[in-house]
Structures are given as C-alpha cells and as structure tokens.
Fold these 3 entries.
Entry 1:
Amino acid sequence: MKRTRKTFGGMVASLLFAACAFAGTERKGQLKIAETVTVGSQEVRTGTYQVEWTGSGSNVELRIMDRGQTVAKVPAQLVALKRAEAGDGYSTNTEPSGNKTLAGIFFRGKKYELSIGAASAVTTTPSGKSDARN
C-alpha cells in the first residue's frame, strides 16, 4: 500500500511539474520585426525581440523586450484560433499618416494570437492591414 502511494505521489508530482513547465513557456515567444512599427506610444525598430504576457483570461499585458529591457508594454487580448498557425509572425495596421502600428502577434503551432491594444476593435480595409511571417 505504501509503495502504491509513493508511486502515485511521484506520478502526480511529475505531472504537476510538467504542467508548470508547459505553462511557463506558453506565455513567452519571439517576435521578428521586419519594419519599424508603433506599439502603444513606442516606436519599435527592425529586430528580434522577446515577448511575454501576464494576466488571466483573454485580457493580458504584453511586454516586448530587447535583451531583458522592456521596449514597449501594452494591453492585449488572447484570441483563440480554429487552427494552429503555420509560422511565427505579426500583423500591422497602416494609419492615414503612413505609420504602421502593431496589430497582432501569432506563433507557429499555437491556436491563439495576441491582438494588440484596440487593434481588435479597429476595422481595416485589406489594403490597410498586412501580415509578416517569419
């Protein structure tokens, strides 16, 4: 009986550890930006950045970081997708001034995307929105 409890306890502990490890990687990703974009009130230049989000439910806070330093922090929404993305990438909206704003981030193999700020509430024409895949 004691052996069964120890075995069961070990299995439960390993499952919890695996779940915690998986949950930790789910809230991080990488973003390669091929053009200068505006995120919130910050200009983010071409480069590779780490992204991290915190919060519960669909409303989260997104941080875009370069070498551990926060470049931009904005509210975002986790949006469920019907199928997993084929690659990593992002989408932008083009403002009347010609500036591009980051509208969303998606990740290879994930069934969700991050919709940035009020971008999910903005209706854009197909010519005003572009996708970039890495």
Entry 2:
Amino acid sequence: MISQDLSHVQTMFPLKPGDNIAYCKPDLSDFRDTVDALLADEAGRQRMGAAARADFANWARSWREHLTAGIEDPIRGVLSTDRTRRS
C-alpha cells in the first residue's frame, strides 16, 4: 500500500508506516521515488504486502464493530447531545 502521508489523520485501519504502508508526501512529489524504492527492495515489498493483506483481513473480520464504533456511535452521540440541547 502506498498513500499520501496520513499520519496526521485518525483512521480506523491500523496503518503502520514501513510495515503495512509506505507514505509519500501529501503533494505526491515523491510518489515515483517511493514506488522505485519499493520495486528495488523485493524482500521488503513482499513483507509489506503480506503484512498489509494480513492486517486488512484481520481488520475486515470485525467490520460490524468498526461500523458501530466509527459511524453509529458518533452519530448517536451527536443526536443525544442535540436532544439534550432542545430539552
């Protein structure tokens, strides 16, 4: 996995730079260099790909919990706060 640097963003997926993802600059100016570095490192690329696949498979097994924690719970929290303000 290659992505713009998301280290400043809270994500539900466990992104681990150098383990299951390679980041490039937000403006993608080093995208080609990032790809070239991965292409030059067969063992590292294979390791990172395997880790990304395994991490995604593990993460995806709990999709209902992620949906609840990441979407349903925050919406319910906002709605309950909104009802409290109206009371």
Entry 3:
Amino acid sequence: MKVAVVEDDEAMNEYIRELLVLEGFDVDVYFLGSKFLKELKKKYYNCIIMDINLRKMSGYNIIKEVKSNPETYGDFNFLILSSRIEQKDINKGLKFGAADYLKKPFDDEELILRVNLLVSRDREIQIDRKKYKEMLFDFKDKKAYYNYEVYQLTNKENKLLKCLVLNAGIIVLKEKLFYEVWGEMHIYGNKSLEVCISRLRSKIPYLKDNLINLKGIGYKLSE
C-alpha cells in the first residue's frame, strides 16, 4: 500500500517515513506542496498524510485543490497531521475534504491505526476508481476524466475499459474482453468488440495512441 507524507519539517518527515516503512508501507515524502501536486497527477496513494503549516501553500489549500479537481488529480484519503488543535481548525480541514485529523504531538500507534483504517477503506473502493496515466476512470459512475473533460461511458464501454485499465500494459485476449463485456463466448466474425473499441477511440481522443490493437490477438493499454 502506498502512502504519501507531505511535511516540510525534515526531521518529522523522516520520522513518519521510517515509522510507516517499518509497518510495511511504500512511502513517498514531499516537502513542498507544489512538488506534491505535480507528482499527484501521475501517482496514486491509498492515504496521504498532510501537514497544514507548509511553506508557500498551506495544507488546507492543497486538499481543497485536489478535492475540487478529481479529473486532474484523482480522489484520495487525506489524514491531516497538525499542531493546530482548535476545533475550528479541525472543522476547516474536514470541510475541505480531509478524511481524518490527528493532532501533534501524536502517538505512534494511533497514527498507524488511523492510516491502516484509511488504507482499508480505500482498498474496498479503489477497484471502482482507477488512474491510467493522465486519465481518471470512475467505473462506478461510468465516467472518464481527462484534461478537464468528462466522458460519460455506456455500460459496455465501461466494462471494456475497466478490463483494459486493470490490466494496463498487458495484452488482453479478444475472447476475454468479449466475455467480460457481453457475457458470452466470442463467435468468429462477430465485430461487436471492434465496433466498441472504435467508438471509444472516437469518443476519447487520448485513447487513440494508447489503446493498442494486436491484430488477431487482443488489445492492451500502453504502459
């Protein structure tokens, strides 16, 4: 499970990283909000630990930016870790979209428990929400997001893309795709799959160069 730590105090940043690594988490650390936002467009985290008192851009504004633009960044569970302990500060963080709020100084075991809780919650829903390169797919709502555009998917388009996105970089056989989408074995000469693929490429231009046809074998999304 991947966790990001956004904290500009180097000692605290390293302490949290080591704590999480010992618990088996894959951890990325950030000191600047701008660097974090840039990387978030390309990465996915099961939980993000966010300090509030960052240089230049506050943690509040970072959470607000991410939560207001899911088509750009994705949707994430934020755990605010802050020395601000007044109720108004906690309410502000939750209002902006944080999933949890923990006060500094913190108990190590409590931090791990709270991170595990958010990771478990994310694990339950992440199959319905997936990033692929610069795109975000919400398979539950049958929508694809790219560059501030929202594409509504049909049932069959949604099933087809879900199978391809979950296997990105891997060749998915035509027979498997056909069965996943239409629920029956593929019959030679049936062009329904090819028609659906063509329609997706026309609907979502970003897929034109990334949805690869391995003639006679199957399809894959490029890595």
